[in-house]
Amino acid sequence: MPLHLALRFSRILTRWYLGHISRIEAEKNLLQPGVQRGMFIVRDSESNPGAFSISIIDHDSDRGNNVKHYEIEKRDDDETGSFYIHERASFPTLAKLIKHHQLLYFFKGIWKEKTTAAIKTLKMGTSPSEFLSEANIMKNLRHLNLCQLCGICSDKESIYIVMEWMCNGSLLNYLKDGEGRNLELPGLVDIGAQIASGMAYLESMNYIHRQLAARNVLIGDANIVKVADFRLAKRSGSRSTQCNRAKAQSCIDLIPKLSMSCISVSRADVSILRKWTAPEVLMHKGFSIKSDVWSFGILLTELVTHGQTPYLGMTNEQAERLVGQGYRMPKMANCPDALYVLMLMCWDNDSAARPTFEFLYSYLDNYSSAEEPEYKEAE
């Protein structure tokens, strides 16, 4: 580990940072008798040099004890060092990152005495604006391939967002570690079509997702997938303003009515999944539904490679520089030419020339009988 990073770790780090151990070794350690739910290990990432991974033991009634893995990255452009799991929240040390994420919990529960649901809770005392903005977006969206909001409530200590339960978790973990490892091309293309269908609905509603990636898609029974994580979503062309503490508190007071229109995300506050992000966004020209299309093209590579990190072996900074120079990922092994052509269409440097999600859904939904895509704007 580089000395300048090692010096930034607090003493507590030595208790949970195990360095260069493999994913399999981490699972063996965490699945030993006596290890309780929520215990974790931080280790060097195997797939992304210079980054870290956190492995956490979880438990549910379907799989019993199981280990989940999340990547921790470090900003390339920050001399002081900044660690994050989600770029929206970054911290100068791993210890502070761990402390922050202890404030956010996910549970499996029962909604209205009969419906299995995912319950997301944030401890009071932390900023609730981003947490509640996701519910504010979700309450307006109704589509088979978008994660649905069941309700929201609070007590003296916590805020709870109740969402539909997706038994197989994130698409990324499903492709890498779940039954998705065995999915062949037709099943992968069907998943892509479902995602495009959900995004076509967002497109029709003038919403931009801004965080489209396999990690932000959930998968349930019968490989039904739903786009999730709407914390940074916004309406196209809407004015962004920051929600100050007073406004945030007024939003909390109105939770029973879900009246949270004051919550939004400013451009300065938006952090991005850089390897999934369109070049015009990286050049500070703003997000659009066409930048979501670019991200969808990257997501297609995740499907074809069963969860491989895009631009494998490159740092975020290296990938950004090469993409800005016109580089595009080469065709992956076992990727049909027609599907790769579709990816290249999503990565057109001219955002206006990229296809619509309506076209992407139509093409992928009819993929078995389709040949090379021919994109034309609807008249």
UniProtKB/TrEMBL annotation:
The entry sums up its family as follows: Belongs to the protein kinase superfamily. Tyr protein kinase family.
Q: Which GO terms describe its molecular function?
A: ATP binding; non-membrane spanning protein tyrosine kinase activity
Decide whether keyword rRNA processing is in the record: no
Organism lineage: Eukaryota, Metazoa, Echinodermata, Eleutherozoa, Asterozoa
Can you give the residue ranges of the Protein kinase domain?
A: 69-364
Protein name according to UniProt: Tyrosine-protein kinase
What's the Enzyme Commission number for this chain? 2.7.10.2
Q: What class of enzyme is it?
A: transferase
> One Pfam family, short name please?
SH2
Q: Which SUPFAM superfamilies match?
A: Protein kinase-like (PK-like), SH2 domain
Which ranges carry the SH2 domain?
16-102
**Nucleotide-binding recorded as keyword:** yes
Signal sequence annotation: none
Q: Which UniProt keywords apply?
A: ATP-binding, Kinase, Nucleotide-binding, SH2 domain, Transferase, Tyrosine-protein kinase
Catalytically driven reaction(s): L-tyrosyl-[protein] + ATP = O-phospho-L-tyrosyl-[protein] + ADP + H(+)
